[in-house]
């Protein structure tokens, strides 16, 4: 009788938080029973919102939520990278700066002086940056917040020893597949769908709202043409720039499109 082969070692997983709102960690928790089933296949060694706390543990997969905004965070992401086999950014803040990166376009020191009685006590970097500006990132999960389905699919793929599948189609395809009315054509809404990757299920357009670009730029986007379309709907160059310099402003394609909006639409 052949002996039973030894069980495969369980993956060690950590979820780390940097400058963020915790929304992407909640996407993990909102998996509910699926998260409990996942816990039977992996060891969650660090996830403060779920209970275990061991931030310096060596792990197979480190999920990182949030952007880098302080010197301490620069040091900490380096330690996490060295202790992780795979590092996956979780959501718009970690992949493209998030809302807090809007201060990159303003005078951050002036903000500190206006908000704090002793601004010299605030240890903050001059700019807010995505995780990939500081360490190697093995995979990126976009969204504000990221969807639990994406997180589960990424872990399941890695458990099977395969690379997670990237969703790079444009949001417009998700609208058509879901038979959602195009808010840009039917209502003249300045929608980011033509240049934004899918992943959210076209949530906003399905409820009659224009896409905000939460999931960042799709593959091979024509931002110049899209900027002209937005201008044709009545947006001034500054408003077009603001559409790109929003939730995922530090994504290279959107950063460049916002910077060139004045030239593209005039």
Question: What does this entry show, briefly?
Answer:
The protein has 13 helices and five strands. By secondary structure, the protein is of the alpha/beta class. It folds into two domains: 11-159, NADH:ubiquinone oxidoreductase-like, 20kDa subunit (Rossmann fold), CATH 3.40.50; 171-264, no CATH class.
Helix and strand pattern: EHHEEHEHHEHHHHHHHH
CATH architecture of the largest domain: 3-Layer(aba) Sandwich
Biggest sheet overview = 5 strands, parallel
**What spatial order of strands do you see in the largest sheet?**
2-1-3-4-5
Fraction of residues in H or I helices: 25-40%
Query: What is the global morphology?
Result: globular
**Could you say which structural class the secondary elements and strand pairing correspond to?**
alpha/beta
Uncertain stretches: none
Care to describe what's here?
This protein has 266 residues and is α/β, with parallel strands linked by helices. It has two domains: 11-159, Rossmann fold; 171-264, no CATH class. It has helices at 23-29, 33-39, 71-82, 92-96, 108-115, 148-159, 171-177, 183-187, 203-206, 223-232, 237-244, 252-259, 261-264; strands spanning 11-17, 42-47, 59-65, 84-90, 139-141. It has a five-stranded parallel beta sheet, sandwiched between helices. The model has no long low-confidence stretch (mean pLDDT 91).
